């Protein structure tokens, strides 16, 4: 029997919206809310947001949930969300300035000199590898150089998940996933890197304690209970980054199957349970519990499914994705003469170049808008394959699980299966990061997750189409080298 008296809350603080979901311990969704918002672009390359926007969205969403479900049956709260985005609080825990977001590129001229300083120290090689625009270390150093008065006021540096944990509980905390992607983490000792702090003259007291993702770090404050109109002190776990909760809820840890995430960006996530650091990609320490030794190696193509929206909405002024994709029949796959270079917003993992921009190559007088649209979908697939090949050092996975909004496209599933020349698993019930956050709340309270995912739909490659795509992929590789150089 399902226990309908208890439920667990998950919160996902995304780039452009915040999601809240209430799940029981069978991972059945009882209620969900989504609150949209926008970030600011006050200058070229700047992307910022007032963190209070997230807090107001949390309060709005939770109040709506509690109107549908009794608050006294809420057992715990788990939070997930965007990584790297950096929140600056003063010593009174007040916001100093807008948060600098993960996709901000104002720091592009700082990356190389910081990388060169890190790479000289053997124990900091991993941090040197992952430093990029949007990294918390780079954002901190930008603040120190360009807003020194703000830097001098710093009391805490937090990620979005950590900020919401503080707002709900009054306690400062982060988790190993967010901490290990800051570029000031010690991968040998699983803690903050004192060597990095000393190298860049950063005060260690501005960084919060690190906890396992499912560790309960506090409960709702009296003030927060008043704002929510409830009377029970709901426990809150430390939470973690959105890619980690996506991997958790989609069984990647359990099955050791890599993930392809087609969200705003395109993300490749490769799990291993032996704390093994890969040479390419961000090695993320994921401790769901203190004993967990899982490493997720994460690589990103900066523009993923948003390119689908860009092409249809901004270029073609269409909104019906299914109708547009229906024009691209299976017999066209692998035969398109147009190639699309999808790095329209720079690139971090493979090329570490924020100035890269996109391109169409192979245009003819006979080229149609459908050819261009197909090239956009194929270009993202080629970019993800190039990234996955590099991260796995040439080894080929037996299969991938595809998630995210773009993964709902049957056409894109086919293209990916044939470009990668291996099966693509897709669960009909799309399991999202917000549900992984609720799952952390279940684990953190010592409860048992009683659900198992349905068997996925499996899209297998067609030998003839896959062969055509392998030929096109070689042309894409050549195109990349030419455009980058």
Automatic annotation (TrEMBL):
Pfam families per record = FGGY_C, FGGY_N
Question: Keyword Kinase on this protein?
Answer: yes
Q: Is Glycosyltransferase included in the keywords of this UniProt record?
A: no
Q: Which InterPro entries match?
A: ATPase_NBD (IPR043129), Carb_kinase_FGGY (IPR000577), Carb_kinase_FGGY_CS (IPR018483), FGGY_C (IPR018485), FGGY_Carb_Kinase (IPR050406), FGGY_N (IPR018484)
- Gene from which this protein is expressed: xylB
Family from the record: Belongs to the FGGY kinase family.
Question: Residues in domain Carbohydrate kinase FGGY C-terminal?
Answer: 260-443
Please list the GO biological process terms of this entry: carbohydrate metabolic process
Q: Which UniProt keywords apply?
A: Kinase, Transferase
Name the UniProt record assigns to this protein? Xylulokinase
* Superkingdom of origin: Bacteria
Domain Carbohydrate kinase FGGY N-terminal residues, every copy? 7-248
Q: What are the recorded GO MF terms, alphabetically?
A: kinase activity; phosphotransferase activity, alcohol group as acceptor
């Amino acid at each position: 029997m399902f226990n309908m008296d208890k439920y667990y809350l998950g919160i996902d603080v995304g780039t452009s919206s915040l999601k809240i979901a209430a799940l029981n311990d069978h991972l059945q969704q009882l209620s969900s809310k989504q609150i949209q918002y926008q970030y600011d672009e006050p200058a070229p390359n700047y992307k910022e947001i007032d963190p209070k926007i997230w807090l107001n969205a949390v309060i709005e969403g939770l109040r709506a949930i509690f109107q549908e479900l009794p608050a006294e049956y809420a057992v715990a709260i788990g939070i997930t969300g965007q990584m790297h985005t950096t929140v600056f609080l003063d010593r009174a825990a007040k916001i100093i300035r807008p948060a600098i977001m993960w996709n901000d590129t104002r720091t592009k001229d700082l990356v190389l000199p910081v990388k060169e300083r890190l790479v000289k120290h053997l124990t900091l090689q991993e941090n040197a590898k992952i430093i990029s625009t949007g990294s918390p270390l780079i954002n901190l150093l930008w603040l120190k150089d360009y807003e020194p008065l703000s830097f001098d006021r710093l009391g805490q540096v937090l990620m979005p998940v950590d900020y919401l944990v503080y707002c709900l509980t009054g306690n400062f905390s982060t988790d190993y996933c967010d901490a290990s992607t800051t570029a000031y983490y010690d991968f040998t000792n699983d803690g903050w890197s004192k060597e990095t702090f000393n190298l860049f003259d950063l005060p260690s007291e501005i960084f919060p304690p690190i906890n396992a993702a499912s560790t309960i770090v506090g409960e709702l404050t009296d003030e927060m209970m008043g704002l929510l109109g409830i009377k029970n002190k709901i426990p809150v776990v430390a939470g973690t980054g959105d890619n980690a909760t996506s991997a958790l809820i989609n069984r990647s840890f359990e099955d050791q199957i890599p993930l392809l995430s087609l969200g705003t960006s395109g993300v490749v996530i490769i799990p291993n349970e032996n704390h093994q650091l890969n040479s390419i990609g961000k090695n993320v320490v994921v401790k769901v519990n203190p004993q967990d030794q899982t490493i997720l190696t994460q690589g990103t193509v900066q523009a993923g499914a948003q390119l689908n929206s860009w092409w249809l909405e901004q270029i073609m002024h269409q909104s019906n994705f299914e109708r547009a994709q229906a024009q691209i029949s299976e017999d066209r796959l692998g035969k398109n003469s147009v190639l699309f270079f999808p790095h329209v917003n720079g690139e971090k993992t493979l090329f570490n170049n924020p100035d890269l921009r996109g391109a169409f190559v192979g245009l003819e007088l006979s080229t149609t808008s459908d050819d261009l649209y197909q090239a956009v979908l194929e270009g993202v697939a080629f970019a993800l394959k190039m990234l996955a090949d590099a991260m796995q050092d040439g080894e080929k996975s037996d299969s991938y699980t595809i998630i995210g909004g773009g993964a709902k496209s049957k056409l894109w599933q086919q293209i990916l299966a044939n470009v990668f020349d291996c099966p693509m698993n897709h669960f009909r019930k799309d399991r999202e990061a917000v549900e992984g956050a609720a799952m952390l709340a279940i684990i953190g309270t010592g409860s048992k997750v009683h659900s198992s995912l349905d068997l996925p739909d499996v899209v297998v490659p067609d030998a003839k189409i896959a062969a055509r795509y392998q030929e096109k992929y070689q042309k894409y590789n050549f195109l990349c080298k030419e455009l980058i150089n």
